[in-house]
Design goal:
The protein is α/β, with parallel strands linked by helices. It has 2 domains: 2-94 and 185-208, Nucleotidyltransferase, domain 5 (2-Layer Sandwich); 95-179, Nucleotidyltransferase, domain 5 (2-Layer Sandwich). The protein contains 6 helices and 11 strands. Strands 6, 7, 8, 9, 10 and 11 form a 6-stranded mixed β-sheet that branches. It has a 5-stranded mixed β-sheet with strand order 3-2-1-4-5, sandwiched between helices. The longest helix is centred in the first third of the chain and has 18 residues, at 68-85.
Length: 234
């Protein structure tokens, strides 16, 4: 039973093919990814592990939060492959994936994902045996408000995700916070959570899947037909 997992939500694009273990993967940095680039890389991955798309049983993909353009690209590719093969599509929240990757810590876990405009998606988790549970709902937070939230909380915390994109010294030097890996979401992180959702049948129907943008994009597609080129920016 072969599974494809990938994330396109941030600066790093990552995909992996799995059965019960990782068979092959790729990761590259791309601030402005493209659909054709992602498809080409996935096709190369299939060749590398000597599989074909028809061998897939399910796809796990990162449905956000993150960069608007990257999320749209990932969602479109995932939908296209799953629709053509008639296989399940399992969305995985990137904040959850980051927290789960750090669940062996005994500290409260704070997941952080860059969504640009000097804002981050943020959520806290409590570690439990074998995983994590959300302590708060995901929220969009400015760097200034994140500083207040982090420095005023005297509980021992583990900060994972895009903290390396912060320039705020008070957050980075907070005595109660430990800066830890992972610093960004990878295909393996998405797979580890997606596999559990799939095995427990805990995922939405294909037509009910939505991207977790957490805010409106700067540019949206008009409903009328486009008559000229449109540039998109996060």
């Amino acid at each position: 039973m072969y599974k494809l997992s990938f994330t396109t939500s941030g600066q790093y694009i990552s995909a992996g093919l799995f059965d019960n273990k990782l068979l092959g993967s790729f990761i590259f940095k791309s601030d402005k990814g493209s659909t054709s680039l992602l498809i080409d890389q996935i096709n190369e991955l299939f060749k590398k592990v000597d599989l074909e798309r028809k061998d897939l049983s399910v796809i796990y993909f990162d449905n956000g939060p993150g960069y608007y353009t990257g999320l749209r690209i990932g969602f479109s590719v995932a939908q296209g492959i799953c629709a053509s093969l008639g296989i399940p599509l399992v969305p995985v929240n990137g904040l959850d994936a980051l927290a789960f990757a750090a669940h062996t810590s005994h500290r409260k876990i704070c997941s952080l994902i860059d969504i640009k405009r000097n804002e981050f998606a943020y959520c806290t988790y409590n570690p439990v045996p074998g995983g994590v549970v959300r302590n708060t709902d995901p929220e969009v937070i400015s760097v200034d408000n994140l500083e207040i939230k982090i420095t005023s909380d005297t509980e021992k915390k583990l900060l994972v995700g895009n903290w390396n994109l912060l320039n705020n010294k008070k957050i980075l030097n907070d005595s109660n916070s430990k800066l830890a890996d992972p610093k960004f979401v990878t295909a393996e992180h998405i797979f580890n959570v997606g596999e559990r959702l799939f095995d427990s049948d805990n995922y939405p129907n294909f037509n009910e899947i939505e991207i977790e943008y957490m805010r409106e994009p700067d540019v949206t597609l008009p409903k009328e037909n486009l008559v000229k080129k449109v540039n998109f920016y996060d």
